[in-house]
């Protein structure tokens, strides 16, 4: 029995050494894209974390479980912060200091609240709306409140289709 254990141990060690010498390849999904233009240089003292809070409503009723998120044209296809609205549509986002968000930032909400004078897409299994507003940022102000009544935001919304 001792011989069998020694042989098994030798086989395990050989397999471990052989596996360690194999080069592992990692497949990446997506690719980071640098901004199309040079960003101004900034030090950590120049960057201010801004907190954006508010309430999301549809016809006056709070909308729970939508996920508002922040993004910027300076960082294509990148979500800076995303949260789930709770307690009747209340949300709290922040810009952090990882991204240079001086100037303005976009707040986007995807939802199914019917928007006045903007019909949903026809022939769509899951119609939804995308509402985006631009929020100007001021380094002297670190707390901003934006309440969104989705029903009245035709100018800032598009009708979209999931399937």
From TrEMBL:
Residues 1-20 form the signal peptide. Keywords: Signal. This is Phosphatidylglycerol/phosphatidylinositol transfer protein. It comes from Caenorhabditis tropicalis. The lineage of its organism: Eukaryota, Metazoa, Ecdysozoa, Nematoda, Chromadorea.
């Amino acid at each position: 029995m001792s011989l069998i254990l020694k042989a098994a141990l030798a086989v395990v060690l050989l397999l471990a050494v052989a596996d360690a010498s194999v080069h592992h390849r990692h497949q990446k999904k997506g690719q980071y894209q640098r901004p199309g233009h040079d960003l101004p240089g900034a030090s950590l003292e120049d960057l201010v974390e801004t907190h954006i809070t508010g309430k999301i409503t549809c016809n006056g009723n709070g909308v729970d479980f939508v996920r508002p998120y922040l993004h910027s044209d300076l960082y294509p296809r990148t979500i800076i912060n995303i949260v789930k609205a709770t307690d009747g549509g209340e949300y709290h986002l922040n810009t952090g200091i990882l991204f240079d968000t001086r100037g303005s930032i976009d707040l986007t909400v995807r939802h199914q609240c019917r928007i006045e004078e903007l019909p949903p897409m026809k022939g769509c299994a899951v119609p939804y709306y995308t509402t985006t507003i631009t929020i100007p940022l001021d380094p002297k102000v670190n707390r901003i409140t934006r309440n969104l009544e989705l029903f009245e935001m035709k100018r800032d919304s598009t009708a979209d289709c999931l399937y």
